[in-house]
Amino acid sequence: MITAPKVRLLLLILTVSGVLSGTRMTAQADSDSDSTVAKVIVDTSITLTGLTPSFTLRGVPGETVTENGAVSMRVTTNNAAGYVVTVRPVSTALVGSIAGNDDVIPTSLLEIRGPGQGNGFTSLAPGAPVQVASSAGRSAPGGDIVGNDYRITIPSVRSDTYSGTLDYVATTL
Question: Which of 69, 78, 72, 81 shows the shortest CA–CA distance to 134?
Answer without folding.
Answer: 81
